[in-house]
Amino acid sequence: MAGGGFATASANGVEFEAKITPIVIISCIMAATGGLMFGYDIGVTGGVTAMPDFLKKFFPVVHRRVESGTDKNKYYCIYDNQRLQLFKSSLYLAGLTATFFAAYTTRKLGRRPTMLIASGFFIIGVVLNAGAQDIVMLIVGRILLGCGIGFANQAVPLFLSEIAPTRIRGGLNILFQLNITFGILFANLVNYGTAKIKGWGWRLSLGMAGGPALLLTVGALLVTETPNSLVERGHLDEGKAVLRSIRGTHNVEPEFAYLLEASRLAKEVKHPFRNLLHRRNRPQLVVTVALQIFQQCTGINAIMFYAPVLFNTLGFGSDASLYSAVVTGAVNVLSTLVSIYSVDKVGRWVLFLEAGVQMFFSHVVIAIILGNKVTDHYTNISQGLAILVVVMICTYVAAFAWSWGPLSWLIPSEIFPLETRSAGQSVAVCVNLLFTFIIAQAFLLMLCHLKFGIFIFFSAWVLVMTLFVMFLLPETKNVPIEEMNERVWKKHWFWARFMDDHIQ
């Protein structure tokens, strides 16, 4: 009954009654602050690497190239430096490793303690980065930040999916992605201000990452554990009490019965990662891995990491570069709000397909402009074309923000059964961080060698992933998590063949 403030979801003819209660909204908002940590880090690193004082202290080779302005490959290769790329990408390699430990803690300790562990790693990493005296201290700080992101990206999407009523699960889950975009925008604004502080502005930029980490700590202390996790760990009475509290009704017996059954099946699985390889779990596993690879192959993190560097490459001044990065960050936030509003109305599938067309068009237009106006030795972009490049990047970012950004995290968190959910989320985080590391480590080298062709490279990937969605991604809108197999996978034209319960 949508008009009466209730969210209902059927399961084999049983209606799960659920009010959209304040405790659900507050819990989801507080938990989603984990996205602020991730987003701030994505945004802040691109800005500080465009600051001369930071480059001079840690990357003097790059600083000399920037200052001299005479490098023969200035416009595409001036920032091509493996140590600089390692500064950015080491975080994601650490997150990749940490997510395996996070899979254990989310299952054995719960979603809430895992978020607290994440914030602890992040706070220590921030202190080391802000006080860094040499490259080793800087990289160690980045590694600890990566551990925090690995734990947060494992726990937060699971928490959001499990605590939210089915009817608004998509929108509440995307709060995590919305906070990532807020973090990016906040970092861009901070960088724009601190770039004017000579000598130590970069320390302030890196140090302010402690704000989102403290917010996550407070949030994790205030929120309740999910009923799914409590039942999974044997706290049945507490699980039922929490379920009544978050659903705003005493009539939780049908949903609680399904949680008990799901937990019973989960306990029969002694090796959840091995269980992921069973034939009946193959559709979820393939879709999850594909979504994480494709998300990074859109080129979004290359653009968000290196936005100021990219705009500098196009001939913008340093202030104009940071300003343009702020504009793209703002577009990112506003477009994610579009996804929150529409994901549970129009569905996941429509958003993916529309965005695929928009992103492909943007990449191609940018490639054409750069191919004609920027060479190894000079840039000849007029003010009008420069504005058009920024508009196309914003058009691309908008499409990503209401599709591949939030949905590639939402879908893995809702398609796995309880017995493999933590393991499935771990695989999603692991693959995402692996390909984030690869793109972050390779982007400046690719920009140097492919030049404008890097946008053609990403546009080809966008075409492939759009076709994948069209033919192989089922719609999961308004389907209860525990009903995915029956109502989604067993009815899909291709994946149904893997859902024979008697075949492992």
Explain what you see:
Residues 27-477 form the Major facilitator superfamily (MFS) profile domain. One of its GO terms (cellular component) is membrane. Keywords: Membrane, Sugar transport, Symport, Transmembrane, Transmembrane helix, Transport. The chain crosses the membrane at residues 20-40, 89-106, 113-132, 138-160, 172-190, 202-223, 285-309, 321-343, 350-371, 383-405, 426-446, 452-473. InterPro entries: MFS_dom, MFS_STP/MST-like_plant, MFS_sugar_transport-like, MFS_trans_sf, STP/PLT_plant, Sugar/inositol_transpt. The protein has one domain (8-498): Up-down Bundle (Growth Hormone, Chain: A), CATH 1.20.1250. It is 74% helix and 2% strand. It is mostly helical and 504 residues long. β1 and β2 (14-19) form a beta hairpin. A two-stranded antiparallel ribbon has the order 1-2. The longest helix has 33 residues, at 418-450. It contains 26 helices and two strands. α3 packs across α4 (60-68), α8 packs across α23 (404-415) and α17 (282-297) runs antiparallel to α25.
